[in-house]
Amino acid sequence: MFSVTGAPRPFSRRDFLRAGSGAALGGVLAARTFDLEAEQVATVPAGDAVRFGIIGVGTQGSALLTNAVTVSGVQCVAASDLYDGRHTLAREIAGPDIKTTRRYQELLDDKSIECLIVAVPDFWHKTVVVDALSAGKDVYCEKPMSHTIAEGAEMVKAVERTGKFVQVGSQRVSSAIFIKAQELVASGAIGDVLQAELQLGRNTPDGAWEYPPPPDLSPENLDWETWQKDVPKKPFDPLTFARWRCWHQYGTGMAGDLMVHLVSGMQFVTGINQVPDKVFTVGGIERWKDGRNMPDVQNTILDYGKIHVSVRLTLGTETPEVTRVMGSKGVVEISNNSVAFIPQLGINTSPSYYSQSYPAALRKEYLHDWQEKNDPILAEHPLADVDVYRGPSWDGLRPHLATFFSAVRTRKPVVEDVVFGNHAATACHMANASYFEGKLIGGK
User: Fold this and answer.
1) Spatial distance between the Cα atoms of 90 and 57, rounded to a whole number of angstroms
2) Domain map of the chain by residue range?
3) Domain 50-171+400-415, what fold?
4) pLDDT digits (tens, 9 = 90+) for 182-236
5) Is 413 exposed, middle or buried (0-12, 13-18, 19+ CB in 10 A)?
6) Looking at the domain that runs over 2-38+174-345+387-394+423-442, which CATH code has it been given?
7) Is the predicted pLDDT of residue 7 greater than 50, yes or no?
8) CA distance 243 to 261
9) Pairing relationship of beta strands 193-201 and 278-284 according to DSSP bridges
10) pTM
11) Angle, CA 240 vertex, CA 239 and CA 243 arms, to 5°
């Protein structure tokens, strides 16, 4: 699985933790470093190409399409978007011969299309996905899977009813970095999992979704009425079209755009695949006073039985994305392109500093007895090295898309199915509900 690229050098776990995180280790001459194998991309069995279409060719949709067409054994044949400029973009990415249309239903009616990538705004997810499943298509649905808890439940039922499948687009679960972290936790390396800390921060207008609308956007080249779906209608507004994530009517804010990645990764690594028992969120709109109604600072606590998860999100300060899983025997910490295993003995490795409060004679007796009892134990259990595994960024889309297309052809289970995706999305909806209602969600 890996090859040693550097010899061990003396470095204590205390030094490692003082360094701040696994990501900080790049500038520290320490620890054992291993290279993970190059990203293993699933292959589509030989035969006729998997014919797919895409619904929604915006920021994420265009990235998905760009990666999808590089997967061997697949062919994009059609693209749908309500903005005509994205028809041009889709042809630039997938070739001039693909069909383009405003009506996604035309892709559902095309019997030659086996599966669909759905990358529409959150408030459209359920409608398009359920329609696609009912039309006999497998679906890759961009995260978060749903816009509300009720919609998520309806999507799960649609999968059960149709026998088709949904893979949700939180790509970390197909990453070599997260797969290694899962192996470490599943092996018992960190003992009983007790807590997880998840964090991510941005500090730019783009990071806060203040995107510049296409300069040519107009009611003539965008079906604005249809785009608004069943949300109360408003006059044509290019900013709403480009920045829909800022409003709960259309999106799910930081919870659905950022937290869902973190929660999906945490679920994958820890083996948790359930809705949290209770969720509490605090936050506010502290930085981006642009008319949005979703918070730009948000802190959430999620309880999964005996495992407690904290999530810190902000659009006001740039901080790295980190997933930290903590157990009785150590820590697994994931950054963009590395996972660090920081083992802990969980015992005193030196006499208790509390003995400093003893009178001299008692302290001398205590130290003698402590060393006689514990030195043999410490000799058998030396402090282990910190291990850092480096590999491709967890942000790569291609491996996750490849597992989807492979499943379409082989019918093998996908790595992030509709139940897993619904659990992650529901955690985010509970976080938003707690924020807006100002109370604990779930529990008794």
Assistant:
1) 7
2) 2-38+174-345+387-394+423-442, 50-171+400-415
3) Rossmann fold (3.40.50)
4) 999 999 999 999 999 999 999 999 999 999 999 999 999 999 999 999 999 999 9
5) exposed
6) 3.30.360.10
7) no
8) 20
9) unpaired
10) 0.91
11) 80
